[in-house]
Amino acid sequence: MSHLPENGHILDLGCGTGLFGNRVLEQGGSLAGIDISNGMLKQAGIRCPEGDFILGDVEALPYAEATFDAVTSILAFSYFRNPDTVLREVKRVLKPGGPFVICTLGKNLFTRAVPAYYKFGEMVGVKKIGVGDFDERYYNNAELVVLFEDAGFEDIRCRRCSFAHINLREPVYNLFRKLEPFVEDHLPHFAYNICIKGTKK
Ligand SMILES: C[S@@+](CC[C@H](N)C(=O)[O-])C[C@H]1O[C@@H](n2cnc3c(N)ncnc32)[C@H](O)[C@@H]1O
After folding, report:
1. In a domain, 182, yes or no
2. pTM of this prediction?
């Protein structure tokens, strides 16, 4: 949130059920969201009636050039098959000076186990959310920075960050928020998200 302009027009990629978009609206911004899942968008529309949600693939953004003050993507970038295409599209729809801010799962102890978990799910025939074909991409800080640089973003800042998703219940969320600074400083492998921001020239 701290990277986003106040009262800006914000696009959230892979907006899901509008959890993050709701925060944007609470802080006075206006919100557009795109997601490839109609079911997710239905929930987003219920949570954020003021939001402008579109069904689509983030690799072909259905918006005109220089439409948004900022673009965000929370825990969705790991599903995007062609990240360089997404970055190019984001740059096109951002206004000059606008930031692209991502929070995504990083390469670490936790995500290294995910492919094995998926495979196990397939072996035992469990087809629930999170168990199926493995098709996610995890990055380390340096890889994300290179993607942003190659796409021409400037003023890039990248760090390992929280594991407290805003969907957690209050007491757990607050506890995690208290633990995070210690984990980020002393146990970086357990701070399994990466937050990166880059600005369009
Ligand atoms: C783990 S959910 C995160 C949702 C939301 N950002 C949040 O933090 O609660 C990932 C979302 O990305 C969406 N998604 C995955 N690939 C996509 C694509 N290529 N284009 C648009 N949305 C996509 C999924 O449908 C899903 O809603």
Report:
1. no
2. 0.89
Residue carrying structure tokens 């000059």:
96
User: 42: domain CATH number?
Assistant: 3.40.50.150
- Could you tell me which of 50, 163, 63 has the C-alpha nearest to residue 104? 163
Question: Is 161's C-beta closer than 6 angstroms to any atom of ligand 1?
Answer: no
Express each pLDDT in 58-97 by its tens digit.
999 999 999 999 999 999 999 999 999 999 999 999 999 9
36 C-beta closer than 6 A to ligand 1? yes
Give residue 139 CA to ligand 1 midpoint distance, Å. Answer: 17
Whether 176 is in a domain gets the answer: no
Tell the residue nearest (CA) to atom 20 of ligand 1.
Answer: 57
Give the model confidence (pLDDT) of 160-201 as tens digits: 887 677 778 888 888 888 888 888 788 877 777 899 999 999
Domain count, the chain: 1
Domain that holds residue 102: 9-107+137-168+191-199
